[in-house]
Amino acid sequence: xxxxxxxxxxxxxxxxxxxxxxxxxxxxxxxxxxxxxxxxxxxxxxxxxxxxxxxxxxxxxxxxxxxxxxxxxxxxxxxxxxxxxxxxxxxxxxxxxxxxxxxxxxxxxxxxxxxxxxxxxxxxxxxxxxxxxxxxxxxxxxxxxxxxxxxxxxxxxxxxxxxxxxxxxxxxxxxxxxxxxxxxxxxxxxxxxxxxxxxxxxxxxxxxxxxxxxxxxxxxxxxxxxxxxxxxxxxxxxxxxxxxxxxxxxxxxxxxxxxxxxxxxxxxxxxxxxxxxxx
Length: 279
What we know:
The chain has helices spanning 14-17, 73-77, 83-91, 104-128, 137-151, 155-158, 163-182, 255-260. 32% of the residues lie in helices and 0% in strands.
């Protein structure tokens, strides 16, 4: 669970409110359902379905304030987009896997699926808030309704949803929205979709209107870079330096991406996101 989740300021709209992680209403699902391997992000291996040793009886993290210093940086980056509380309180009606162990296997299986759907809801909702994407708003609203309907299914039905195919259909709409928004910048726009920019020296770079979808920006130097109107969906910002960078009008940027990066008080952020505590 992210060290910043309780402080995240949701974007306007009732839908966005439900897409902000609320660990107090979740049964610690990210700390149990998911697997992780010993690495720079996690101090030890943990198989899927096994509770993290630091998970307490009240489903809170016993080392929440010391996650980074204890070797669990990966936990501070992760964001479920509100899927945890949806599965805990809506899908399973508030029955936790400890009190009702017969729900455990199904709950842990459903959680990653719900997380994917909630992430899609986040992107669709943001696209609907972009005035320049108005030509595809009707299609986006239909996609929103369809995705929300999936999240309300019973566990068995939810597992039958073809999430990959649905994600592909939604992504086509998000790409159309991206093209409409980025067209607002009249200069030459860089297309670095999926590019390997690990460790790249992009200090002060003009990346306005750039397509950085899925770009690998691990440990890249983006200090002072101008990323306004840039599409950042899926970009990997782990350990990227964002000091002084302007992200105010960047879109499809998530809190998890910011949590994985390095910035400071001079980094300019979109209003829907907050400055990570470790910056």
